[in-house]
Amino acid sequence: EKRNPNEPEFIQAVTEVAEAVLPFIEDNPKYGADKLLERMAEPERVTMFRVPWTDDNNEVHVNRGYRIQMNSAIGPYKGGLRFHPTVNLSILKFLAFEQTFKNSLTTLPMGGGKGGSDFDPKGKSDREVMRFCQSFMTELQRVIGADTDVPAGDIGVGGREIGYLFGQYKKIRNEFTGILTGKGRSYGGSLIRPEATGYGNVYFAENMLKTRNEKIEGKTVVISGSGNVAQYAAEKIIQLGGKVLTMSDSDGFIYDKEGIHADKLAHIMYIKNEKRGRIKEYLEKYPEATFHADERPWGIKCDIALPCATQNELNGDEAKTLVDNGCMCVGEGANMPCTPEAIEYFLEKKILFSPGKASNAGGVATSGLEMSQNSLRYSWTADEVDNRLHSIMNDIHEACVQYGTDKDGFTDYVKGANIAGFVKVADAMLAQGIV
Ligand code: NDP
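Structure tokens predicted for Glutamate dehydrogenase:
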């Protein structure tokens, strides 16, 4: 903490990993050598830069840009860009740290990174977003590259932003290479990348349920968020016969007790992706639903909860409410959405709980598949990508079970994911010496 003052999210993420990994190191002393864990908790490189841009009224704004290059032991840095007013060094370091273990879990050769800006795309015109992205990439291009660091999207960075960023990189560098993932289909994007994180989260939940002879079909599901991850988690739940009861944004949540079926979800996608509107507008078309301003959905009775919005959005009290209401499975779609108190409670009650670094790894895994396709200058069919995604999620589940199952048969997916992710990075760092 002394080394990283004012970085609570980063310290929270490192503490969680250390708690899982230290007992493992005691049993496997070779991983205690050469200050491995300490080295992992120090970014290889942090770049911070000024991002000036002009709005539609010609007024000048100044934002701050970041790229955290956390760990390149097993491959080029890889991890998303977040544009949100809450972005700061602590949040991006926590995300980059998590990303290192997550990428390792995917079994693909990708190191860990993360970046972004405190820019708020909400309420900005397309042209304002474009000018911001161009200014951001003018600096970022110095530190990224197809074999060095390949960013992707995250909160506030979707297809529109990736397009503008890619265009500026190409213009400055005069090269068409796979320096970003999440690209549009017409210029090197992969099928299934938009769906991958949400779908992957549901595939992982399916695997967890299977260990207790349960399935998604017929289950009620509470989802937070209404962005990329939440939308496709909802889509897959609906396809598998589950009933989605809620979705949310930073204004509050909607509760539709009849279930948000496919047509209703299509309307949410229209509101959020095309109109760039607010989730409460759902009620204009479906007045039977209710809107709960400034509230989170965890008080709604459900079998499964999928937090898919942001970090620390589900606390200890809310965890207790969920379990008291009969919730049997919580799958993190977002990064670190559950507080340490919430996780402790889920583990104590032995419900099925998956940490984001395992259950939301489908997004970056499919980004890895996009990189492979770019290198091949070829593109796979949707089924091919979806099958690979599905089998990667199965493998991650398997790895968690291998490292996280206690003597009594209970699988602690937090422990399993952290140790499985750690081992591969640690082996590579040991082999590469003290660098
Ligand atoms: P989007 O920007 O598409 O959506 C984010 C959603 O979360 C929106 O509904 C947003 O509401 C809501 N939200 C954001 N911040 C807050 C907040 N402080 N309080 C309440 N609600 C909030 O992002 P993604 O869906 O891509 O990302 C969601 C989460 O998933 C993040 O934690 C991200 O790191 C993680 N993730 C994403 C991956 C991806 O492939 N996209 C991969 C792996 C993890 P509003 O519209 O009001 O801002």
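The mean pLDDT is 97.
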